[in-house]
Amino acid sequence: MAATQRIAAGLAVTAACAMAVSGCSSDGGPSKRGGTEKKPSPAAAPKNAVRLIGDGSTAFTGTQPKQPRAERLAPGQRPPQFVVFSWDGAGEDSQRLFSHFRKVAKANNATMTYFLSGVYMLPEDKRSQYDPPQHNAGSSDIGFNDVAGVKETAEQLRGAWLEGNEVGTHFNGHFCGSAGGVGQWSVEEWKSEITQAKSFVKSWKGNTGLKDAEPLPFDYDKELIGARTPCLEGQKNFMQAAREMGFRYDTSGVNDQVWPKKKDRLWDLSMQLVPVPGRSFETLTMDYNFMVNQSGTVSQGDPDMHEYWGDQMRDGLLQGFDRAYNGNRAPLIIGNHFESWNGGTYMRAIEETIESVCNKKDVRCVSFRQLADWLDAQDPAVLDKLRALKVGQEPKGGWPAYLSARPAPAPKGVPGAPAAGQR
């Protein structure tokens, strides 16, 4: 039998998640098999020599396919409109939402970031391998997986990476609140959690006995460069641990729709506040937060309201998109869960948002890694000018005048730098 269904393990985790601007990944472990949706065909492996790592759970297969080249803006060039769709606690279960949104992404020229929960790669009978900070070994506030669930999740991760998507981490046990939650963890405890999250990904074949299964086509020590913390808690100590362990960004904060900057040498790619149509406030760009503002912590509220609630989330995200697209062009950062809360209305809202925005002119629906690459390639002076623009503010006189100064050349070796012999 598979691990506990996500919703069952979810909304009782902590009342702190109910705050309008809090984020909560309240997903339990992947649920029982049995979905009828046809899974997408596995992506073809890169035509490189495969070098297995460790027990063969992961492998080095060369440069990740389908990665755009990050280039500097030309003088006076309007910046692209970036949109990042990301998923907390990514795993494949009977809802088949991971495989479904892979297809949605491919159909709409989008790549995404999947924040994998490490315990989704650890079978229930091996749960004692997990030694969470401030909790007993084998404890978790979300469920572990079963062998079939680990295999299916690995298949989705493999295909997603080969299609150009990013695999981040949502850590392991999803502990929130005051009783040993992540907000109370030290830097060293965060390092332990990160190391264990990596280890479960790097040893899933040995832990399941699926020795003949295809490996994940990446070195997770190199692939993992960013994360979102459970319930958006514990960010300060996590960021110190992440920085020392080679991460490049964090997306555990809350911000307005303005251009990002580095915080303690990590890109602060926080989620943002967008309008709630028909209400007088804004809320976080996350399905959970729209739900809390609509049906409270009840994940299956009034069925007569489901369609309206989904439309409200979609329209709020689109309003946020429009004011950036027609204004300061700040990247729009969106977080979600593979959940069927309120009849799946938020999954419909996200899908309709993807279909609406990702095919527009100058729009790039990218992963966090790709956004960080682009930001690293830009002239710092240009980024400073972009950050000076307020929410929805279009530069006075237009983009050509606002960014007309010729930027300094990119440092040697930075993405977007001129090739040898070029100026």
UniProtKB/TrEMBL annotation:
Return the InterPro entries for the record.
CE4, Glyco_hydro/deAcase_b/a-brl
Q: Give the signal peptide range.
A: 1-20
Give the Low complexity compositional bias ranges: 411-423
| Gene3D superfamilies reported in the protein's UniProt record | Glycoside hydrolase/deacetylase
**PROSITE patterns linked:** PROKAR_LIPOPROTEIN
Task: Enumerate the SUPFAM superfamilies for this protein.
Answer: Glycoside hydrolase/deacetylase (SSF88713)
Quick one: where's region Disordered?
Answer: 24-77, 400-423
Q: Does this entry carry the keyword Nucleus?
A: no
* GO BP terms, alphabetized: carbohydrate metabolic process
What UniProt keywords are attached to this protein's entry? Lipoprotein, Signal
| Descriptive protein name | Lipoprotein
Lineage summary: Bacteria, Bacillati, Actinomycetota, Actinomycetes, Kitasatosporales
